[in-house]
Q: What sequence folds into this?
């Protein structure tokens, strides 16, 4: 929690649940990432947190943007981004969205299938396109491997087809999965993409960009490697495979940029046991999986908690959200412990929750309104 | 799909994704349920679909309401419900919500813990309270067992305590899990609750209501027992265990009341394969798990699809939503098949999606707006 967030919580005690996010920390993260990967161009993954204060700060820093939808493109443009600084990175797009983006001046689009490529040829003629390939996601706490990307052989054919369709076969991309905790995941993926890159060059395709995606992790309950470690591993692999002929490098950080800038402030609604002698207490918060904490599904992302009683004697807990749905349980197996003195009405903070929280919030499940947001 | 929904879709071709719901069908379902369980008082589980046209129709029919939050209570009151017809059924409530409900005239509250009971004693003095007990959820496609309810021995102590605290220890409740496909789940739960009921009577507690919860299923991809089968099983078990001294019977149907009244109309955004010879196609829709179809988590609820090409040759598919998130995959293992001629831009209908869809929708994940709603 940054001092600014801490001060805001202390001075304002805002109604819970809410996110408080320090935009200065976003800027620091942007600079740290630039320092770790000076040759890469940063396309902020807007979906991580599309709030205007975040986008505006990043526009001011010269960031580019990776948008998942026409609505996200609109948000970037509204924040002052030039359309040339926006990549339409979802490989699954309605053709109406492609047309709208193209009309607005967006000229970079992702794809991973022939049908998508033909949409792009029709509705974004001449645009730069890049093909997403399937790579391993081992080490990612929020893996992405199965849904996006295609096999190498298919990517090769599609990149050749892109040129034939009048598009600019600009590059290749991959994604090693979100909250990726292993630097070698990038190394393996770079080796794979480099093979195809060379192959395409040999086939006369003027491919010239590699998009390394995002995945750079945030510290939640456990330590993760430093961003400099990822930078070193990535540049080592790029140099090994591309030598002096480095392509343009694009990265799409989302979680890394905003995750540790934000804190969710919540209230304990109930602490109870299912039987008198049950050693495990149930702690119910006023935010749960449908209030924004969607990434606790399968207990994948394990947030760290702060309570007013930290340091006192603790005991095992199951942590759940406020709705009448059993799937709205955050942590049951991950061995969380909280102070025995924790009680109804206590405020707790969920640390490093600046990414992938606000937009996930259900519009009204069980009648609860989405969490409030404060940018400081 | 009811004729009215069908006609609306044909005549208006509303922008997708959207829910179209036939409010007359809600009324039919209410009447079917009344016929199947004539001795039960119906408290509609508002969380299933809190839209004003649904609530207003049910108010007109004399329904009572099971609310999960103060916001849902407000929605019932706005729809014309008397406060005495509302039960605050969430066992996890902020004390401020209890106060608001009590001030508005609500006098029936659920609990399953001592802490909650003490909140009720403070903020809803003299109110009718009922204790939720833990029961098995075998047979439920959307189980609820773990998070709510307490063990019998604890329930017994808490019901006695309720009287001592000046509350009215009105009844006992259980929930056999949502989309419960086995009638014997109710029979087993009724046997369990009856034991405690008798025990409490013997202890001088004037308990006089049994709340059987909801769970009554809707036909999705597979057949389910008829509501009359549930009615017969429930009344058989009630008579077996309570004889002529039947308590007041409360039921809390949600899914059953609105599920088959609604249809989600969606668009195919992309059909693709990950490799040329892959037998499985990926079908991406403009609605997914974060657009409202939250109950497809773990492929729990298996919706039936209609396409413009039904009857043509089909093949295996993985069905996914439109967001850049791999968890936004609806069905990968449930052996769905769709026509080979299905293509981008085709409209598809997801049948019986009137329950537990609209409110789950994320407010803006990936920039996508929540689905539109049409009540006809």
A:
């Amino acid at each position: 929690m940054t001092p600014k967030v801490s001060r805001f919580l202390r001075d304002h005690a805002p109604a819970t649940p809410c996110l408080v996010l320090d935009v200065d920390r976003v800027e620091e993260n942007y600079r740290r990432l630039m320092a770790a990967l000076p040759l890469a161009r940063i396309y902020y993954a807007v979906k991580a947190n599309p709030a205007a204060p975040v986008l505006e700060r990043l526009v001011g820093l010269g960031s580019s943007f990776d948008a998942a939808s026409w609505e996200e493109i609109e948000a970037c443009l509204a924040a002052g981004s030039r359309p040339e600084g926006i990549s339409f990175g979802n490989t699954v797009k309605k053709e109406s969205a492609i047309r709208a983006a193209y009309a607005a001046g967006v000229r970079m689009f992702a794809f991973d299938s022939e049908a998508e490529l033909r949409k792009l040829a029709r509705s974004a003629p001449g645009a730069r396109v890049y093909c997403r390939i399937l790579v391993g996601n081992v080490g990612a706490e929020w893996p992405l491997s199965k849904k996006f990307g295609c096999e190498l052989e298919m990517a090769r054919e599609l990149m050749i087809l892109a040129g034939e369709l009048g598009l600019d076969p600009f590059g290749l991309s991959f994604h090693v999965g979100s909250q990726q905790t292993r630097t070698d995941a990038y190394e393996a993926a770079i080796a794979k993409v480099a093979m195809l890159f060379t192959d395409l060059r040999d086939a006369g395709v003027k491919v010239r960009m590699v998009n390394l995606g995002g995945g750079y992790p945030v510290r939640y309950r456990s330590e993760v490697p430093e961003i400099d470690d990822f930078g070193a591993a990535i540049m080592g692999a790029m140099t090994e495979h591309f030598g002096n002929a480095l392509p343009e490098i694009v990265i799409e950080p989302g979680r890394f940029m905003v995750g540790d800038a934000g804190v969710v402030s919540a209230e304990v609604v109930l602490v109870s046991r299912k039987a008198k002698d049950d050693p495990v207490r149930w702690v119910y918060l006023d935010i749960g999986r449908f209030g924004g904490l969607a990434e606790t599904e399968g207990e994948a992302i394990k947030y760290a908690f702060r309570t007013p009683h930290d340091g006192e004697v603790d005991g095992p807990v199951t942590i759940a959200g406020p709705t009448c749905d059993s799937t709205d349980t955050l942590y049951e197996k991950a061995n969380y412990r909280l102070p025995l003195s924790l009680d109804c009405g206590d405020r707790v903070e969920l640390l490093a929750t600046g990414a992938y929280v606000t937009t996930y919030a259900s519009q009204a499940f069980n009648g609860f309104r989405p969490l409030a947001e404060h940018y400081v």
About this structure: The two ends of chain A are 12 Å apart (CA to CA). Residues 320 and 329 of chain A are 4 Å apart (CA to CA).
